[in-house]
Amino acid sequence: MSGGIRTNELLNCYHCGSTGCDLYQGLEDLMFGVPGQWSFLQCPSCGLAWLKNQPIVEDIPKLYESYYTHASVEPDNTFKKIVKIGIPVHDFAYNQALPHPRLLTAIAAKIGPLREIAAHSVMWQKAKTGGKLLDFGCGAGVDLFHLQQMGWQVFGTEPDPKAVEAARKLLNNDNVFEGFLEDAGFDENTFDALTSSHVLEHLFDPLTTLKECRRVMKPGAQLTFATPNIDSLASRHFKEYWRGLEIPRHLFLFSERSLREMAEKAGFRNIKILTPSCYAFYIWQGSYLLKTEHALPGGIPRNTGLGIKLRALFFWGMEFLRNHFGSPCGEELILIAEK
Ligand SMILES: [Zn+2]
User: Fold this and answer.
1) Helix 280-293 crosses helix 306-324 at what angle (to 10 degrees)?
2) Distance 41 CA to ligand 1 centre (A)
3) Distance 62 CA to ligand 1 centre (A)
4) For the chain, which has fewer Cβ within 10 Å, the N-terminal or C-terminal residue?
5) R_g of the chain computed on alpha carbons
6) What pTM, to 2 d.p., does this model score?
7) 303 CA to centre of ligand 1 in angstroms
């Protein structure tokens, strides 16, 4: 029991069974105020980290009582159009009209950090006009809305009813299932692409969900999952104050190795893992505020001054360069795999 939430201790690695070592102890939720003290263990063999006192399934909703899942979509300005439409036309074969001025798109497509943001916006999926794409844990459908604009026929699953309502309205269809993927009852071999952004770490049984993802994908379809990287530069620097820990809602935090091996166990092939640094600017600021102010209400760094923003920008640049020169330390792991 932790803060009125019923828990079970998980002492051995969910993935490989090794005995976990203490990573962090006595942590509190400094973002959404869930009561209790929480600890993290890490596997000495595969590097997977996990919440030691795992909430029982029935009590997991208590972790989300004041959590955000809603966001509004504002029209993209020219710069955003260049990054989210122009660069994917260059890099992922989308056939949308290039935003004007075209010269700026050609220049932006040569800037590494912008290319990472662009790839993230289409989840590293190559264009397939009319192809069926499922975003699992789609929230209010903001990411799906962009993929719909890029030509995909989009579907989603989401357990939060308010988010489902927002997503259906935004996408102007009823293709968002309210509930968990396992309960949606999709037929085998249905989807041409499967995406998920920052959901895997919230699941109490991620391997079972990965297997279900594979089942509903067509042979040759690509899955792309984004999840925090426990070995990221900010994780190593800020340790228990790293924004990516998100205590106690993140039940598992993956290393490159544990994510790759779990995808293999689920039956995927042609597995590739990237560690982009698109979130470094945001994560550095959140982690810095957690460390210095011991609070980050709502989980989002707001109204930070110019000094903090410049330091975060410098950190982003450093992380990008280290990544680029062969040290995989970006804030996210991107699992790219085929059925
Ligand atoms: Zn392990």
Assistant:
1) 130
2) 11
3) 28
4) N
5) 19
6) 0.94
7) 39
